[in-house]
Amino acid sequence: QDTAMNGAIVRLARLSRLARGLTTMRFTKVQQSLNVLIKCLKTSLTTLFWALCLLVVVQAIIGIATVQVAHSYIVDLHNPEEKRHELYRYFGTFTRAFISMFEIHMANWATPCRIFMESVGEYYGSAIVLYRCMIGFSLMNVIGAVFVQQTMSVAQNDNDIMILRKQKEMDGYTKKLKALFSALDANQDGMLCHEEFHRMETDPDLKIWMHALELSVDDLVGLFNLLDTGDGFVSMDEFLMGATRVKGMARSIDMAH
To answer: Taking the complete model, does pTM exceed 0.70, yes or no?
Structure first.
């Protein structure tokens, strides 16, 4: 028994060390994405609260109305007992009607609607369908749009999210530059010479590729001359560094000249 207890203590100690190790991993991509999600959820708590309040109020008002309509049918002993019991299960009390309204709104709306229509009347069944369309499509879409707008506002103004987005953009741009370098490197030796660089002036596909990366032939030719250490070659690291510098409006080659 002592041995089993000691083994359990050892496992708990290992789990605690693992938990501490996970808390120290703050800069992994997974944690960064999770951090973004948590921040968006935190900023949406107020919006979520008022959206739920609005939804509850609407459901309560409609639930009270359905109870009033169903009550007269339920207490009338001339109506079939089976249908009165069935209607009572869904709309006999305020609590039952309130839950049924959420069921109509978010789950299987057809069953309560059928029961209400076959018991009270077809007119009221049509009213429930109209309610389902108005609340289900209008109100929920508005609430969803508010959440999306709130999330986009957080994504645009939060510093950590902006840094993460820029980092992802730079990683993607670097991958595209590496693919361009491989396309230019005809002999796949990891170095670019003058002849391989000048292929861009005659190859239309490479020109289109470069324009998509916001680069021009003149920029890269000047970059080659600027980065060439005298051996007539440019490595991938030099290519990536120089192409990133000349991308966009602030071109370091122009400033160098």
So the answer is: no
